[in-house]
Amino acid sequence: MRTYRLAVVKGDGIGPEVTEAALRGMHAAARRCGFSLDTADVDLGAERYLRTGEVLDEGTVSALRTHDAVLLGAVGDPRVPPGILERGLIVALRVAFAQSVNIRPVRLYPGVQSPIRGVTAQNCDLVVIRENTEGLYTGGGTLAHAGTPHAVAVQNSLTTVAATTDTVEFAFRLAQERRRRVTLCHKTNILMHAGQLWQEVVDQVALRYPEVEHDYVHADAMCQHLPLDPGRFDVVVTDNLFGDIISDLGATVQGGLGLAASANYNVAGSAPSMYEPVHGSAPDIAGKGWANPAAAALSAALCLAGLGEREAALCLEAATASVLAELPSLAGPGMGSDTAALGERIAARVMDVDPAQHAGGGGSLMSALSRLAREGATAVI
Ligand code: NAI
Ligand code: MG
């Protein structure tokens, strides 16, 4: 039987709750499709940091590297100053494992109510491809004379043609498997140097994909187009900061943070990819059973797709969507079931759901990613 080795970082707050629920669905999908998952819990996050002072050590990075994929819950804790875990762990792993693209689907599933009027399952199915290792997130810069009236902060933004090309190339490959449209989102009118580099890379890569149309939208204008007319987008490609921001906007459009999934994806397969919900550790609801596990379950479905397991990915996605459609509310006690019970419901549904049910028109992301993952694996061999 095929077996995948999965490292599981449950993390902090609601991280363990949603990850356990997602794993239940993932194991069910593996069972249904005839393979197995060998999971190993990896102790990282606030508790370990508070206990040992260590965020991420070389030994743990090497151990994670031996796995086929990493599943992450969320990290962050009010007792730990902001940035220590988020930068020291998540950003560090994205860089260490060359997870050069971040895949963030923005999809409204049938039966789920968007808070934005006029957004429907038919017109809301796009994917944000965010460059994942550069831009303002490289962390370089200085703060001189901190805490004085003369304080000066410089925060560097780095854009390389190599990482930009990897990201844009992936966006075009994905679009080719979907509705064949790529939109570059940037701020070329103000961030002229980085903007010019991005636009030139898009123009270059586009020459290799003549069947894929491409256009451009400024990041601020995107904040209007995305909620009001999501149907105009198929694959949106953008830099690290804009991608972080517009995908949270996308999360709202698709029903909230409890539903938004993501993949930190190593395109070449040279190190494991890491799959995590877009939301954080939600300390305000941790331990209450009020967290919606859908974002984690859909991230787990992306993980199955990233492993090339198309049918299992589609089953887990369809099961999650079908349970979501039954919820009276998408978060909190109004969901009518707690996080663990929802995980059980998703796992049970995986066994009898029709995987084609939510495969979507115009090329499902799960199918497209599975195909690209299999092509990538062949290319590496
Ligand atoms: P958050 O995403 O944890 O929570 C924002 C709001 O959404 C809260 O009201 C929360 O209750 C709600 N929410 C989040 N996930 C939910 C779910 N699955 N079901 C129902 N409601 C949900 O963001 P916040 O509060 O800004 O950050 C909390 C901590 O998480 C901070 O330490 C932050 O740095 C960290 N963080 C970590 C991330 C990661 O691990 N990738 C990403 C974002 C934040
Ligand atoms: Mg974010």
Terminal residue distance = 21 Å
CATH superfamily membership of the largest domain:
Isopropylmalate Dehydrogenase
Number of strands: 12
CATH level-1 class of the largest domain? Alpha Beta
Can you tell me about this structure?
The chain is an alpha/beta fold and 381 residues long. The chain is 42% helix and 19% strand. The chain has helices spanning 15-33, 46-52, 58-65, 84-96, 161-177, 192-207, 219-228, 240-253, 294-306, 310-324, 339-350, 365-380, and strands spanning 2-11, 35-41, 69-74, 101-107, 125-131, 141-144, 152-155, 181-186, 213-218, 235-238, 261-265, 273-277. The strands form two sheets. It has a ten-stranded mixed β-sheet with strand order 2-1-3-12-11-4-5-10-8-9, with helices on both faces. The chain has a two-stranded antiparallel sheet with strand order 6-7. Strand 8 (181-186), helix 6 (192-207) and strand 9 form a beta-alpha-beta unit. The two termini are 21 Å apart. 1,4-dihydronicotinamide adenine dinucleotide binds at residues 14, 18, 74-76, 82, 86, 90, 257-258, 276, 279-285, 291-292, 295, 331. Magnesium ion binds next to helix 8. Its cofactor is Mg(2+); Mn(2+). Keywords: Manganese, Metal-binding, NAD, Oxidoreductase. GO terms for molecular function: 3-isopropylmalate dehydrogenase activity; magnesium ion binding; NAD binding.
